[in-house]
Amino acid sequence: MIIWLASYPRSGNTYFRLLLNHLYGIKTRSVYDDPLLARLEGSSELVGHELLNGSLEDLDHSKEFFFVKTHHLPSDNRPAIQIVRDGRDALVSYSQFTLSFENPYQSMGRWSRFVRNVAGWSEQEAILRQLIVSTGGDFGGWSENVVAWGSRRAKTVTVRYEDLVGNPIDEVTRSLAELQISGDQLRESISLPSFDELNKRWPQFFRQGKTGGWRSSMTPKLADLFWDHHRAGMELYGYQ
């Protein structure tokens, strides 16, 4: 049986998977098979990532529980754990991630980008603006994604990233209990890696793990633009 680990990108999905692995020894999968983890030496083992090695239908027919990461909009009635992060922090983190691994402006050339930067243009700000206004596609915009997962009729347990960072054991344990998943015992000896340790080893993937970091990266104009597009998602989850 599949249980979705659902989130908009850069909202703490990988961190939740890491916690499942360290707290309960639960290995997880991803609909994308996460090739980036294979490039970051040792990260797959730390996260507890395993390849799908078969179709989702094959997993569904098993009596075992399979936790599978997705950023896609919901399209079925499988149970889910939804990880939600303040949309401003999620989009800022996503823009930084895009700049590091998928920079759409790389083809412009170093000199052209340098000239634009001198004139006050910022690659990250341009990426962030596009993420704020974008809708549709597999993921949808931030509000589109979180509202869709949060309002589905299928069993969905919501975990706020901010609560997860503050109380990781309680939040993961609560999630499993609400899904009535039994048989997995909390490990007696638990040593969770800190975000400082994660950042030191994989700085472009695990950045800060802090809340409110958007304040140093999002201009007032972008913050206003964000609220114009994402008020519904923010109010649904009590973000201000």
Which key terms come to mind for this protein?
240 residues; five-stranded parallel beta sheet; alpha/beta; Rossmann fold; 12 helices
Tell me what the structure shows.
The protein has a 5-stranded parallel beta sheet with strand order 2-3-1-4-5, with helices on both faces. The mean pLDDT is 88. It is built from 12 helices and 5 strands. 47% of the residues lie in helices and 10% in strands. It is α/β, with parallel strands linked by helices and 240 residues long. The protein is globular, with a radius of gyration of 18 Å. The two termini are 36 Å apart.
SSE layout and pairing:
Blueprint: E1 2-6, H1 13-24, E2 28-30, H2 35-39, H3 43-47, H4 56-60, E3 66-70, E4 80-84, H5 87-101, H6 110-118, H7 123-133, H8 142-150, E5 156-160, H9 161-166, H10 168-178, H11 195-201, H12 220-236
Helix pairs in contact: 5-7, 7-12, 8-12
